[in-house]
Design goal:
The complex is a heterodimer of chains A (257) and B (315). Chain A is globular and about 70 Å long. Chain A is of the alpha+beta class. Chain A has 8 helices and 11 strands. Chain A has 2 domains: 198 residues, Alpha-Beta Plaits (2-Layer Sandwich), CATH 3.30.70.20; 27 residues, no CATH class. The N and C termini of chain A lie far apart (69 Å). Helix content of chain B is 68%, strand content 2%. Chain B is built from 10 helices and 1 strand; from the N terminus they run αααααααβααα. The two termini of chain B are 12 Å apart. Classes of the chains: A alpha+beta (257), B mainly alpha (315). β4 of chain A pairs antiparallel with β1 of chain B.
Amino acid sequence: MTGLPENAAAKKLGLVIDLDICVGCHACAVNCKEWNDGGHSAPLTDEEPYGPDPLGVWFNRIHTYEAGDGPDGRTVHFPRSCLHCEEPACVTVCPTGASYKRAADGIVLVNADTCIGCKLCSWACPYGAREYDYADGVMKKCTLCIDRIENRNLPAEDRVPACVSTCPASARHFGDLGDPQSDVSRLVAERGGYALMPEMELKPVNRYLPPRAPADAPASTATAPAAPPVTDETTARAPAGGTGSRFLDWVDRTLSR
Amino acid sequence: MHPAYSVIFFTSSSGAGYGALIWLAVFAITGAVVPDTVSGLAVFAVALGLVTAGLLSSTFHLGHPERAWRAISQWRTSWLSREGVAALATYIPVLLFALGWILFESHDGGWRIAAVVSALAAAVTVGCTGMIYASLRAIPRWTDATVVPVYLAFALASGGALAFAILAFFTPMSSVWALAVAAVIAAAWALKFLYWRRIDNAAPVATAESATGLGHIGKVRLFEAPHTGENYIMREMGYRVARKHAARLRLIAALVGGAVPAICFLACAALNGVLVPLLAAIGFAALATGVLVERWLFFAEAEHASMLYYGRSAV
């Protein structure tokens, strides 16, 4: 049924993504694709993967943003996937009941056997989390790797979503955000984790941990050589927008006249 | 939003069909037309044909048309499901109404009740169509209060023009009805202009800053997209029409779909004889063209919040 579960358990499984340490390597997206291409919503069809306009289904995509300007500006790598909302519009708009939210743990899933491929759920999702599989004619989305987290054939430490298990920077965390004592909930409380686009009132479960301000970043304990200090000399030689060479700057000025 | 032709055709076609059914009921209840087999066959065939063609078009647009029957199950939460239920339910009173008109040549007693129920069911179906769009918060401009009234108004305008044009071929129609159709056409476009003015002046609901939560650092700009090619989301939600072109299309739609049919129906009110059905038919054709452009713009101009992740700064 596309009604939301009435007696939902307190359990809210979800992800916590640390934007401070995500390095933008796309490993989580690749491992997601790898696992889920044989998982619950398999296959994640690629169309013309070697053609000029490849198109394919991915549950997890990594954007990179610039925020702010000047010395306070930051480049932030931003993994984006389904947020497993507490009040998901994608579920309630579904005319067939194929889209549903599990009462036991809040995971939002699609039943590929009853989905009619009307795409309305993807229209209802402001996060762009659902992707239509043109070849299968059904909607697909992040399953939070239900076929890993409950998989008794896997060693206990591997029963986490593929994106979490593969992250080389440990920027991704999986757990119960409905339990205030869980590791993920404590991490969110400690770091000021936030929800995306709260104004859409869908109550996302996933949380993002903000990049730390440069001053708050923990002091580096690594033995990396210190960067050479920026002197007045070097800044004088490289005016904003300049090339760093007096000659080339002169050429640039002359040609710009 | 990507303006898919199947959806544009469905909403315009079935809208005109349901609108025509509402007018037929009004004609029947007020005794404006004498029911007879030939006119009934013609007008119900066209109205139900448009409704059915629209419904079939939207069904074949699905990824799995053979599963379409499942769509009537979730009426408790889904406006799309409600639309499906309402559309199917509408056939029952409409077929009875048609039976009375065509076979029994009567608008009295039970047939009159069938007419009233037909009109209500048709209006509810069009209302559900509008609510499908108006309930999507991810497309903020569609949540505007004028969206459902605009859908209803264009259904009434195009349906009125259609029903009048067909019936006028068989029986002289009172000039009051021609004036009524002209008035509804004017009202529909007035509502549409109100919608356009409101969406042009609406404050953004969500921004790249709220979508990423990085606003505390400063202005957020897309530095690198997740992939070099397109994806489903960009194809479906990323369509954008240049403001300049949109402004021109709005004008064309209003002239072709508003001014031309309004003049045609005003002329119908003033004239007699064979010119009336002819002018009404021209008026309907112009209105239908205008509605198709208006519907195309409804989709093409709408901005989806997911595009905030792909470089838009506000929706």
